[in-house]
Amino acid sequence: MEAVRQRRRLEDMSSRRWADLPKDLPSLIAEKLQTHIDMLRLRSVCASWRSSIPPIRRSPLFPVKLPTFINEIEMFTGELNNYDEHFILSESTVYRLDPPASNSSPENSGSWLLRIEETSVGLTRFENPLSKRFVRQPPYGFPKVLNLLDFRVSELCRVYNVSLNSGLSWMGISILSVALSSRPRSSSDDYVLLAVRSDCKLCSILLGGDYKCTIIQDYDGLIFTDVINFNGKFYTIDTCCRVLVFEELSLQLIEDFRPAMPAPNICCCLRLVKLSGILLLVCPPFKGLTDFRCFKLNQELRDLEEVNSFDDQVLFLGDQFSFSVSTLEFTGLEPNCLYFASQFHSSIKRDGVMQNVGNIGVFKVGGGNGGPLKYYPGNSKIFWPPPGWLQPGPPASSQDVVSVDMQ
To answer: Is 82 exposed, middle or buried (0-12, 13-18, 19+ CB in 10 A)?
Structure first.
């Protein structure tokens, strides 16, 4: 009991020392922070800092209701509440979790990937890090409440996904890929969304206004496969490796070129990804799990340079997004690998062990071999099951919904 009182006295003294710092210091620090989790940590320093720093406001506020497509060209605007079916733009965040600094156990020192979506009603839910599948049931022993401030947390990327609220494809149209502008057009929430539809047409939506949705008709003959926001510009690519670059706010075409192709058998399902500050073109295999090919896009020379090594980097290729990490900073990963969302349909165990890895594959760049993640157990621990150091709280049952404390 005396130890508890002593710890509380030390915490009170620490809070007073923080509160005695210059009044404008918290706001000056807050201006330099760019991620939600960093802002949470700053506000958690002490009560006075929490009251002086307003909660971070997400812009735009997610999820966002979007119009459905009436036909190939014509869209509707105005109030959407009168329609039962609509598209929903959601945002989720991929975090890297590490055990607290006080945890020095070697067997519990590995990092863990966690993808979280905050819903419109203030709840959170887990998602497969690389696909759209939700983790509906926690594994045995998983804590009922997961407080991210109890761990060392880094934000890796934000993921944007467009889906139909009914879960069905409306008129056969869905969204294959989506990218959001890095800033609004003005001080409001009028962000620009650029998307590739399932009919391979390119369309844009202005958020925050009347949600007018427009097909970019000048390129009606192109079959687009992907779109990405890279260095404040929208990059798109079609099945013939034609690259179009747009200014992200005005959507004015900046560049239009077809790079020289180093191999005639490049696949048609091309993906654009970021890796260590460069833009890569990834060619998934037509069949099987091998023969991914990666190319660096050189805009000055307008050609493609094949990449056979990621060095210490690891690339994660999701359904509609990608991100990379360094194995020097992320324990539990093998360098020079590509993790990807695949069409595996492994049986899902009741405790959720396979729920987060059943549709993930791994490919060793330059080695030409790969397969389902379950065949590479040394590489699967970053996904599932959760590490032992996540177990300090009361365990959840298979019927519980795990909540994540991010306040």
So the answer is: exposed
Question: Could you tell me if 71 and 172 lie in one domain?
Answer: yes
**Residue 114, SS3 per DSSP:** strand
Instruction: Write out the H or E segment, with its range, that includes residue 350.
Output: none
205 in the same domain as 150: yes
Nearest Cα residue to 311 out of 323, 327, 296, 298:
327
Q: Note the pLDDT tens digit of each residue in 208-236.
A: 765 566 666 667 678 888 999 999 999 99
Integer Cα distance of 127 and 59 in angstroms: 22
Give the span between the Cα atoms of 202 and 226, in whole angstroms. Answer: 9
Phi/psi of residue 378, nearest 5 degrees: -70, -20
| In contact, 312 and 326? CB cutoff 8 Å | yes
Q: Within 10 Å of residue 91's Cβ, how many Cβ atoms?
A: 17
Rounded Cα distance, 190 and 320, in Å: 22
Q: Enter the tokens of residue 208.
A: 């925050």
The count of domains in the chain is 2
Query: pTM for the full model?
Result: 0.77
Looking at residue 334, what DSSP letter applies? -
53-83 confidence digits (pLDDT tens): 766 665 566 777 776 653 343 343 334 444 4
- Cα–Cα distance between 328 and 268 in angstroms, integer? 34
- The side-by-side arrangement of strands in the sheet containing 293-298 is 271-275, 278-283, 293-298, 303-307
